[in-house]
């Protein structure tokens, strides 16, 4: 017995469809074979009755009234095996018959009135005396255009019905065998579907309980194979995300501990007193610097949280990209000077590059990109910022460095959240992930091209503010 579920439904549906189909085929076959046998018998007797009628018209009618021997001649000439041939008068009385037992009363079955009306009569029914199922065919015998006698053939249908019943039983047996084979096939088909599903369900339950090292094994085909591959991929991604999360927690803990250690140490030192004003100024400066660093880390985490929950607010206005990049370069100038890195801005737009967006958020994007370029560039190298127009009314900002570059292994992962190529470099691993989402909120795209040991190029493409467009959305407009 198949348990409730999709397996039982498959078997049941196959069984019902095949059963109904076989039932209809069986019914039509039985009806058709019965009609074929009955029509063959009818046509055989009808043809002989027609030949008897023609014989009567040509040879018997002149003497039929006075010489009954001609009826006997007709009976002998047109007699059929296993069939009774009778000559009836208009009242249905038997004038002559091949059966030695004469009927004791006139025959009044429906084929007799039909013959008297001038057509070929046919009757199928049971004889009152014996209860035997018979077929009777009657045809008129005419004298001078008037029906005077009737030639009537009567044959038993019991043997035919017996053969039809045997054929019916045989076809039922074949249908039952076909139905059994289809049922076995449907059970096999159901098992081929249900077993993989049960396996996938069992492994999914393990994953739901936190066992993400469980994998669906088996070479399943079609949609089941795709489902198994998807679940295995999901488990791998969860494991990877958990690893990234663990790395992030470890990294952020270190990043938060460093400024907090500096703040705590100098606050305790300054509290103890006894320092000259110069040392006090240095300590307060360190506390302020580490506090700013701490605030930056927290704000980065908060920005990422807002982006993930679609709660990031943008204050839209007109943004001049050239001016924005000049401000960005000023903000990182001191850091670049420490490594003797030259920053150069080149404008190829041959005009103003104005976009519609949130100036502070776009500045955050370019600050992160340029800061990364400085962080991973060699001393006494250069960083090139290029503004150029591209097709479809868009502008592209490229930040090109000659730093250490990124290997092909990590290139597709650098924009993933919490991912860091170099864990010793500090940071949360959220910078590029946040930048990517901010650019997409401005209907732009960010691409990274890099070669290990050669350098990296980060391209940010944004839609230009067209000339016939309203000059800027009013400052203060917020979008998500």
TrEMBL record:
Molecular function per GO: kinase activity
Catalytic activity reported: ATP + protein L-histidine = ADP + protein N-phospho-L-histidine
Family matches, as SMART domains: HAMP (SM00304), HATPase_c (SM00387), HisKA (SM00388)
Transmembrane segments: 12-37, 167-190
Subcellular localization, as worded in the UniProt entry: Cell membrane
Highest taxon of source: Bacteria
One of the Pfam families matching this protein, by short name: HAMP
CDD domains: HAMP (cd06225), HisKA (cd00082)
Keyword terms of this UniProt record: ATP-binding, Cell membrane, Kinase, Membrane, Nucleotide-binding, Phosphoprotein, Transferase, Transmembrane, Transmembrane helix, Two-component regulatory system
Annotated Gene3D superfamilies: 1.10.287.130, 6.10.340.10, Histidine kinase-like ATPase, C-terminal domain (3.30.565.10)
Name of the protein: histidine kinase
Organism: Paenibacillus rhizolycopersici
